[in-house]
Amino acid sequence: MQIIVTGRHVELTDAIEQYAIKRCNHLEKYREHLQSIEVVLDKAKIEFDVEVKIDVPHHSMFVGRAAHEDLYAGIDQAIDKVDRQLHDWKEKLQSHK
Predict the structure, then answer these.
(1) Which residues in the chain come in under a pLDDT of 50?
(2) CA–CA distance, 22 with 58 (Å, rounded to integer)
(3) Is residue 2 within a helix (H) or strand (E), and if so which, with residue range?
(4) Helix axis angle, 71-95 relative to 14-24, nearest 10°?
(5) What is the pTM assigned to this prediction?
(6) Coil, strand or helix: which one is 95?
């Protein structure tokens, strides 16, 4: 599973990148379904926009977005949103078997 962290208008420090990767590793339970994870951090006027895109083969991309004044809280919210989407999708797959 490949994790890509990019920043737009944000100085991407090692601490921020490592935090995003650590939070993405929480999605490891879906490892067999995930191809790649991309985390895009963007600085708007007042707040940070965080977008987490997850590529799953044979399925459209899962996307979680969050906007928050605190970058770390934004990362948490976006990953929680995409985690919920993956959980619901996996439950749906298992119920159809």
Answers:
(1) none
(2) 26
(3) strand 2-8
(4) 20
(5) 0.89
(6) helix
pLDDT in tens, 75-89: 999 999 999 999 998
**Which pair of structure tokens corresponds to residue 70?**
């605190």
Strand-pair category, 48-55 with 2-8: unpaired
Identify the helix (H) or strand (E) that includes residue 7. strand 2-8
Domain at 2-95, CATH homologous superfamily: Ribosome hibernation promotion factor-like (3.30.160.100)
Q: Give the domain ranges of the chain.
A: 2-95
